[in-house]
Design goal:
Blueprint: H1 3-10, H2 15-23, H3 25-33, H4 37-48, H5 50-62
Amino acid sequence: MTLMAQQDLRRPVTPWTVIAAILLPPLGIFLSRGLTPAFWLTVVLTLIGWVPGMIFALALLFVPEQIPIR
């Protein structure tokens, strides 16, 4: 794991990011991680259904070390 990836895991979650992840899941991931594979996976899950996208986005925000997608 690179130093950059370790810093991303330690970035604090802001209330705005959580609100964005609930209302529009890809936006919450974009605000916290940028255009990464996790963002695109969140887009696909949100297109399938809002609930799967929201659950995945919140999981990425609160337990990023448990999900191997960066």
